[in-house]
């Protein structure tokens, strides 16, 4: 075991601090991460990895969308918190910024079960944000770890069985008709345990045509089969019968009334309905002191219908079956006297979408003629291996390789006699690799360097053929990326942790959206380059007071790109990403008494189009949360209040990239409040 893996006591000794002093104060402890497929100390990992613990993720937060918990991660930018029909859009190092809805180019895992389907799309609407216990974010191409993803990985753990009996009931109310009622319970018994959470939320919304009704259940059940083996069952149920979409508006409409919906959104009653159920089983077996086996199986069914905010073929519906299995073997044992950890495994995932599209022209969104009916099938088989070799007590070498085979099939079921049949197949075989090294300069400071390749296939939505009908766009190819990165991590004294990463990502055949008026289509740009700096700092000023900060600089440019209309965008900034982002937070927390937290988020300007003709101004947002804890006999009552956008700034919660009609903007709410109470029994 390398000697640089520190405990709090070693940190104090290294700083020359007397033990008695250390016992009276708090100190930052090392963090262990496992999102990189091998459990290891964060400081030893040759990658930019951000970690958010339960306290930062949930304490006093409203929990509308995942971005509330991720704002402290440098290199990550999220939009669309308040549109529950289009859902949260997250980008890491620019990947995913131009997704029209949902999360794109990022592997999303929740309790070890993927929320990213085979074709690369992710939705975060089925995550119970009120019970998040830990989030790990790998920034940068990660195909060598998880396959089809150029942006990175978001790995989330939610409430698990607890050693003490947990029984809580909570209620929260706020501006714009927001309310949520929830309950949760957890307990670990001898040999088995459970963790349950359920809530119901209603939200009228800041803008017209933005009402939401949503219910969620999350459950975990574990059984200890023997001293060496355990099995965990995970159940998630989402019911969203109402999720309205106010759509984007143009600048003149923003000046006239920020809260209005687009005319078509109101006329067609745009929005979505979703039902989703997930069942997962994870098996862990310690085969010996050095050998570990982990297996998983899962199944997700999603029933989805959405009216888009334009007349035409704008009502889409699908029933999706997404299922798969994975097996991973890990061995921790020396090789030729050198400490070594090796892991290998396979992922097999399958996606089947029964998809339809209907013509809608009448008010109220009544469906007319069916314009598309097709069965979409996507299969993915991935085989990977990763090795961490400690060459010395100071130097670790990490290598990884993965092979992915993807097959996409469309069965056009709408073709009648004499009609063109859009059925077809596309397949891709991709190798991905990574090489990284970590060197401990001292016991408290490490530097690393890494090179990795990644790929991102088009999704079924992106495969849409701009020439009309269904089937595949025959010209569309996966985008390929190679990431070069150096970084430093460590501790300053006993109370400051820092993380710094400098990177460059070269991308070929980047998937770029263009709008033909009725819907989005995609094309490949030639080449693009991403260069950036990511830095974060965590400082425990005292045992109760902490300061956190994160900064991102992004220089993302098209190197070669001439679009389908002959427009040359070489040298233009990639739209949808601000050049600079800053996050700062000052937090006071005293267990048994309460907390007070103030944060500021500052975003630079960005462009809404490939030509960089539509500039969106930067903005700053200040938010605050205060909570008080009070004992009521054997129970604990926590009351909290939060204020979003304290300075009442005007900004946009979402910018729709390359919108054909100039309706780029979705205004964010002005100053708003929420108040909640939690009773722990």
From TrEMBL:
Domain TonB-dependent receptor-like beta-barrel as annotated: residue spans: 255-646
Ranges of residues in domain TonB-dependent receptor plug: 42-153
Keyword annotations: Cell outer membrane, Ion transport, Iron, Iron transport, Membrane, Receptor, Signal, TonB box, Transmembrane, Transmembrane beta strand, Transport
Organism of provenance: Spectribacter hydrogenoxidans
Entry protein name: TonB-dependent receptor
Subcellular location: Cell outer membrane
Keyword presence, Transmembrane: yes
Domain of life where this protein originates: Bacteria
Membrane topology listed for this record: Multi-pass membrane protein
InterPro entries (alphabetical): Beta-barrel_TonB, Beta-barrel_TonB_sf, Plug_dom, Plug_dom_sf, TonB-dep_rcpt-like
The family this protein is said to belong to: Belongs to the TonB-dependent receptor family.
One of the Pfam families matching this protein, by short name: Plug
Endpoints of the signal sequence: 1-22
């Amino acid at each position: 075991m390398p000697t640089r893996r520190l405990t709090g006591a070693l940190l104090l000794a290294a700083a020359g601090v007397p033990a008695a002093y250390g016992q009276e104060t708090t100190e930052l402890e090392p963090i262990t991460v496992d999102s990189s497929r091998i459990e290891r100390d964060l400081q030893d990992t040759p990658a930019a990895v951000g970690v958010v613990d339960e306290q930062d993720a949930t304490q006093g937060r409203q929990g509308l969308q995942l971005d509330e918990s991720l704002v402290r991660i440098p290199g990550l930018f999220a939009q669309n918190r308040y549109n529950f029909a289009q859902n949260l859009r997250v980008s890491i190092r620019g990947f995913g910024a131009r997704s029209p809805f949902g999360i794109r180019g990022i592997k999303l895992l929740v309790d070890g079960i993927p929320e990213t389907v085979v074709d690369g799309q992710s939705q975060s609407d089925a995550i119970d944000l009120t019970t998040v216990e830990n989030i790990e974010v790998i920034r940068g191409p990660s195909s060598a770890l998880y396959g089809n993803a150029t942006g990175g990985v978001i790995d989330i753990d939610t409430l698990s069985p607890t050693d003490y009996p947990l029984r809580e009931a909570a209620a929260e109310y706020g501006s714009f008709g927001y309310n949520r009622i929830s309950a949760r319970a957890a307990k670990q018994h001898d040999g088995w345990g459970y963790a349950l959470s359920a809530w119901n939320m209603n939200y009228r919304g800041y803008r017209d045509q933005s009402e939401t009704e949503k219910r969620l259940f999350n459950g975990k059940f574990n059984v200890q089969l023997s001293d060496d083996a355990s099995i965990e069952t995970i159940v998630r149920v989402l019911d969203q019968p109402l999720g309205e979409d106010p759509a984007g508006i143009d600048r003149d409409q923003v000046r006239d009334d920020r809260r209005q919906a687009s005319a078509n959104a109101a006329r067609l009653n745009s929005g979505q309905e979703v039902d989703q159920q997930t069942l997962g089983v994870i098996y862990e077996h310690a085969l010996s002191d050095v050998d570990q086996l982990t297996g998983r199986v899962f199944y997700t069914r999603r029933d989805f219908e959405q009216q888009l905010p334009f007349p035409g073929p704008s009502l889409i519906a699908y029933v999706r079956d997404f299922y798969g299995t994975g097996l991973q073997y890990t061995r921790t044992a020396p090789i030729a006297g050198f400490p070594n950890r090796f892991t290998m495994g396979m992922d097999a995932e399958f996606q089947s979408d029964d998809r339809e599209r209907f013509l809608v022209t009448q008010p109220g969104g009544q469906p007319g003629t069916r314009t598309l009916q097709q069965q979409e099938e996507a299969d993915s088989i991935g085989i990977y291996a990763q090795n961490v070799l400690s060459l010395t007590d100071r130097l670790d070498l990490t290598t990884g390789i993965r092979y992915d085979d993807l097959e996409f099939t469309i069965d056009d079921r709408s073709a009648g006699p004499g009609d063109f049949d859009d059925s077809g197949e596309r397949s891709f075989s991709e190798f991905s690799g990574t090489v990284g090294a970590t060197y401990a300069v001292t016991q408290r400071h490490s530097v690393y360097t890494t090179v990795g390749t990644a790929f991102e296939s088009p999704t079924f939505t992106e495969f849409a053929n701009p020439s009309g009908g269904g089937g595949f766009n025959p010209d569309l190819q996966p985008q390929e990326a190679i990431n070069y990165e150096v970084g430093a991590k460590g501790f300053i004294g006993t109370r400051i942790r820092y993380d710094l990463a400098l990177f460059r990502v070269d991308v070929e055949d980047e998937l770029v959206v263009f709008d033909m008026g009725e819907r989005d289509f995609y094309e490949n740009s030639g080449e693009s380059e991403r260069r950036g700096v990511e830095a974060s700092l965590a400082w425990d000023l005292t045992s109760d007071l902490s300061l956190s900060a994160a900064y991102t600089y992004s220089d993302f440019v098209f190197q070669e790109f001439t679009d389908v209309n002959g427009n040359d965008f070489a040298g233009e900034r990639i739209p949808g990403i601000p050049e600079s982002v800053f996050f700062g937070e000052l937090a006071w927390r005293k267990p048994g008494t309460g907390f007070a937290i103030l944060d500021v988020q500052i975003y630079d300007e960005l462009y809404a189009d490939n030509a960089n003709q539509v500039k969106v101004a930067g903005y700053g947002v200040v938010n605050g949360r205060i909570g008080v804890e009070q004992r009521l006999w054997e129970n604990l009552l926590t009351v909290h209040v939060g204020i979003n956008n304290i300075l009442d700034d005007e900004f946009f919660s979402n910018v729709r990239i390359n919108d054909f009609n100039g309706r780029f903007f979705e205004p964010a709410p002005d100053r708003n409040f929420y108040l909640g109470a939690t009773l722990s029994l």
